Hints:
- This protein is of the alpha/beta class.
- It has one domain (20-250): NAD(P)-binding Rossmann-like Domain (Rossmann fold, 3-Layer(aba) Sandwich), CATH 3.40.50.720.
- The chain has helices spanning 29-40, 52-62, 75-83, 109-130, 156-176, 192-198, 202-212, 221-233; strands at residues 20-24, 44-49, 66-69, 89-94, 134-145, 180-186, 241-244.
- Strands 3-2-1-4-5-6-7 form a 7-stranded parallel beta sheet, with helices on both faces.
- β1 (20-24), α1 (29-40) and β2 form a beta-alpha-beta unit.
- α1 packs across α8 (221-233).
- The N and C termini lie far apart (49 Å).
Amino acid sequence: MTTASEGAYVAGQPQLSGQTVVVIGGSSGMGLETARRAGAEGADVIIAGRDPDRLKRAATELGARGSAVVDANDPAAFEAFFDGLPATIDHVMVTAGGPYYAQLADLDHTAAVRGFDEHLWLPVAVAKHAVGRVRPGGTLLFVTGTGARRPGPSLAFAAVGAAALPALVANLALEAAPVRVNLIAAGFVDTPLSASLLGADLERRRERLRATLPIGRVVGPADVAALAVHIMTNTALTGATYDIDGGQQLLPGD
Length: 254
């Protein structure tokens, strides 16, 4: 005789009903779409971000349980944010911050250090504050990229984060257990951040990916959100890195 495993899928039942999901970086892009998906699955959503106006609009759109303006690089404000959360939460996703791209000749030391802090120290800070507040079996979920896995001009600092985060997440999964810790590694995702980085080259990039990716389309925030919610609800997953790039890494030279 077999019994349903913990977290087993039940058809037609919201997968996050009654749970609280916190998304740091939840006012746009992948974070906003994950918050939207979590809410559709029955979760109470709390979002945090740096831009007050954008955060207010997102919270209103989502019908969020709460929102907070937080600079992840301000330790005191970050601690105060976690102290203000409900005593028990279920999942924390972090999409805040981003990689730092620069050639050595153009290196801005302050910006590089900030990039390292956002990509490497932020997960450590989140884990430190979340342990004891995230319930057993809940999730800490972080985001990195796949593009910097291949060497190239301007990619050195981004590559350090892409290489280091899977090892960091695996170790945090042991230290934070029974809270689960996982990492999403995304290729190109069609977000406002991508648009700001590529500028006039955005449409050219989209066209190339549509023509070359095995999936025949560009990866969007909704794809990442679907993966994020799956990781939250599948209680067998911890310490792992999940690539989502539409097969981009399979292509020579991409």
